[in-house]
Amino acid sequence: AETKMPHFGTEMPTQNRTEVETVQNLTSVGGRPKAEVWQYYNQVNNGKGRHKGAICKFCREVWNRGRAQEMKYHTAIKCKGPVPRDVRFNLLREIQNGTDSTLPELSTPSTPKRQRTFNQKSLTLDAYYDTTAAIDQTREIRANKA
Questions:
Q1: Are 65 and 48 contacting, i.e. CB atoms less than 8 angstroms apart?
Q2: What is the rounded radius of gyration, in angstroms, for the C-alpha atoms of the chain?
């Protein structure tokens, strides 16, 4: 009696394969859940791995990579399409109430460094170097040597 070993090169029956694929799609999503603003956008496969592009359902504007904050601003403020008044109002309220972490005045020291925005009160590069304070002679000598 010959025992049949499974052959890994054979195809799985179609019925079983679709059941497995369905289970994998449900369980292997991973990552952060999609933001609510995605309901106003069509997801597009842009060929760039896990990051998906987006198309606005109201004005058909296209993004190569759908970023929730950009999409929220677009829908609330910039979209020229027929965005329902309540949708626009709710998104504006979210932005105003501080659920938007990209606004400069809402940045906190606990914000990760790569997400911090510049403080509006910080000096510009020109303003920093154009201060009227005199440079002491030692620094001037070192600067001239370089």
A1: yes
A2: 27
pLDDT in tens, 86-100: 998 988 888 888 654
Q: 3-state SS of the chain?
A: CCCCCCCCCCCCCHHHHHHHHHHHHHHCCCCCCCCHHHHHEEEECCCCCCCCEEEECCCCCEECCCCHHHHHHHHHHHCCCCCCHHHHHHHHHHHHCCCCCCCHHHCCCCCCHHHCCCCCCCCCHHHHHCCCCCCCHHHHHHHHHC
pTM exceeding 0.70: no
One-letter amino acid of 80: K
Which sequence spans correspond to the domains of the chain?
Answer: 34-100
